[in-house]
Specification:
Elements lengths: L10 H4 L29 E2 L4 E2 L1 H8 L24 H19 L3 H6 L5 E2 L5 E3 L8 H4 L7 H22 L1 H23 L9 H17 L5 H16 L5 H20 L5 H27 L1
Antiparallel strand pairs: 1-2, 3-4
Helix pairs in contact: 3-6, 6-7, 6-8, 7-8, 7-10, 7-11, 8-9, 8-10, 10-11
Organism: Streptomyces triticagri
Keywords: Hydrolase, Membrane, Protease, Transmembrane, Transmembrane helix
Membrane topology: Multi-pass membrane protein
Length: about 300
Amino acid sequence: MEQSPGSGQGPQDSGLPGCYRHPDRETGIRCTRCERPICPECMISASVGFQCPGCVREGSGTGHAPSANQPRTIAGGTVAADPRLLTKILIGINAAVFIAVLATDDRLVRDLSLIGQFWDYFGAPLQGVAEGQWYRLVTSMFLHQEIWHLGFNMLGLWWLGGPLEAALGRARYLSLYLISGLAGSALTYLIAAPNQPSLGASGAVFGLMGATAVLMRRLNYDLRPVLVLLALNLLFTFTWSGIAWEAHVGGLVAGTAIAYAMVHAPRDRRALVQYGVCGLVLLAVVVVVVVRTSQLV
């Protein structure tokens, strides 16, 4: 179901050059010093535009940029040695939880899935977010019951998450992922509650999809691949039975809004704008959960 935004299209297809360090990655951005084409992983924020790793090393004279001019991503994050580390960790957590689900005969699904309110045989509220189990909004994001569900979500996380982690930096990328997932959980709780269970990383993955579109637009990439990917996933969302469309839509809206702030924030107030928008989206999530809980209890 999920596929790479850049699959099936190389630099020759769109007319854009390939990154000089990663020739298979087309890009519309060039180093402001040497003018060689560079992809998001190679972009290092400079006083004007972006520079490539080679020019930064040459400019420092030692092979390492001075602390005052620490290499930065397009969003202002620190350039990491392993740009996919958090993505690998997130995939590992999802896989570990899935193994635990199999080992406990689905008992974890009952204990950790997102459910607004569940009644006992006498009609009394028994468990759920409305009963104070807010942790379900988070735990359900890492919970999968079927191998195909886990596989599709983890493929999407790997293909979309790696480039975003490299372009945004770890802290911003993790904020994007978690808040997108929470927004998906909150919208599901608002609409599908009280007693319809929901689980999976799809909300967070849809947030990454929206963020990918924003990033590609910011870098003047060809948007057609990611728009086709998004359209196909939305088609599956609304035509397949048993899919929590609320999580997909909530994650997509939140991820798009956060990513726009990440890559368009003014340089002099970048962190304030970026984390301010993250805080506003998180506040909206809390308000939705509180309001829905007040309706159920």
